[in-house]
Amino acid sequence: MTDTPTNKPKLLVADLDGTLLHDAAVFENRSITQRSIKVIEQAHEAGYQFAIATARPVSTGLRFAQMLPVDAVIYLNGALIDFDPAHSDFKSLTSASADDNPNLVKVGFPSQRACEVCLQLLQAMPGLQLGIVMNDVRYTNFDVRKYWKTQAFQYTNFQIEPNGNVPQGTADKITIFPEQDQWEALRPLVPDDFSISISEGVMWMLMNPQASKEHAFSMLCERLGVPVEDTVAFGDDLIDINMMRAAGRGVAVANANPQVLEIADEVCPANNDDGVAQWIEARLQ
To answer: What's the superkingdom here (predicted)?
Structure first.
């Protein structure tokens, strides 16, 4: 983060869950208010560019992108970046042909490597709940409806086709749901060619080290032609910290993780009080 605040930023980047969205009893019911939609529309009309940076996959993030005037969308914590959201749909973002789309950037790893890592982890820790996310399908050894009611999944033996059901191609991430007493033993088992991010204190994500909100944010600035010092990033969770530090201003919602609040340049009201919208409203006056 820079030491000098920007008076009128040119690019606003916001996380979804815990930041822009209101909370709900279940994941699927988290929502964005009409107030937030209207304020972001007004900001866009006033010349601000706007982007979403979320750990969500396309299946649960796309609908919010379609509700807002977005100039770019970072999905899967940086593993997929869409630079043409106005012309994107679920099929174009998740099909195998997405690898050849010049308006999409995929930052993953070979699915064969993902299978190898999953099998290595299971050999060391039998019973570990984990899976591979690829083209918005979860290839897992557990029923993901325990956590998400609507996301597509297939049970797998972590073998590449034709011996298994994991297709050849680029995988986005490996997700793991370790029990709390498994954390200490799990961390040293993660291979060096993967980075670890932990979402909401529950889900571990093993990813290409370049698949991060921070790296995706820098690509946004370059592609959209916006100097870093003219940006603002909003977040609430640990996976938002590096992006917020990289931005001209890092703004935490009041409900953010204490470590996020500690590094933030500013704190706006909580997500359930439309804190991001309130922050933008104050600068549109």
So the answer is: Bacteria
CATH node for 109-207: 3.30.1240.10
pLDDT tens digit sequence for 29-63? 999 999 999 999 999 999 999 999 998 999 999 99
Classify residue 149 as exposed, middle or buried by CB count within 10 Å of its CB (0-12, 13-18, 19+).
exposed
Amino acid identity of residue 126, one-letter, is P
CATH 3.40.50.1000 intervals, the chain: 11-106+211-284
Burial of 229 (0-12, 13-18, 19+ CB in 10 A): middle
Q: What are phi and psi of 218, to 5 degrees?
A: -65, -35
CB-count exposure of residue 179 (10 Å: 0-12, 13-18, 19+): exposed
Q: pTM of the entire structure?
A: 0.85
Start-end of CATH 3.30.1240.10 domains in the chain: 109-207
CA pair distance 268, 278, nearest whole angstrom:
8
